[in-house]
Design goal:
Strand order of the largest sheet: 1-2
Radius of gyration: 42 Å
Distance between the termini: 110 Å
Mean pLDDT: 83
Structural class: mainly alpha
Order of helices and strands: HHEEHEEH
Shape: flat
Number of strands: 4
């Protein structure tokens, strides 16, 4: 029995090109640290720029709020907070109540209004009566 060499690649080392393929973790860490340093420098620079600009624009410190702040009207503009304004809500409720109740439109002429559901039912009954 002759012994032939095995053609299996299980026990062979990786080729030279693959042996050098490894993650360059040192370079990745260096790039990350550099990016953080650039970010920190840009943050420091923009903060200094902001403070310098604010000092130039307001040399005596922050501007005091105007004397009219807090008044319900400044000039011709109402200053009512949106949370306290309920006019639209009230208007919608009034319209809803009118659409769902009986009442006079013109008492002298005898014109009334009826709930919308009843008016729709009456209209549909009239239309069905007119069909041949």
């Amino acid at each position: 029995m002759s012994h032939e060499p095995s053609h299996s690649t299980e026990n062979l080392p990786p080729p030279e090109a693959q042996a050098d393929e490894r993650v360059a973790s040192g370079k990745i860490v260096a790039i990350g640290v550099t990016a953080l340093l650039v970010f920190a420098g840009a943050t420091w620079w923009s903060t200094r720029l902001w403070k310098t600009t604010m000092t130039r624009l307001e040399p005596n410190g922050p501007i005091a709020p105007g004397a009219e702040i807090g008044k319900p009207e400044i000039g011709i503009v109402d200053q009512v907070p949106f949370e306290t304004t309920r006019a639209a809500e009230r208007y919608r409720k009034q319209q809803h109540d009118r659409l769902n109740s009986y009442g006079w439109v013109d008492r002298d002429k005898g014109v009334i209004h009826v709930p919308i559901e009843k008016a729709i039912d009456q209209y549909l009954a009239q239309q069905q009566g007119k069909k041949p």
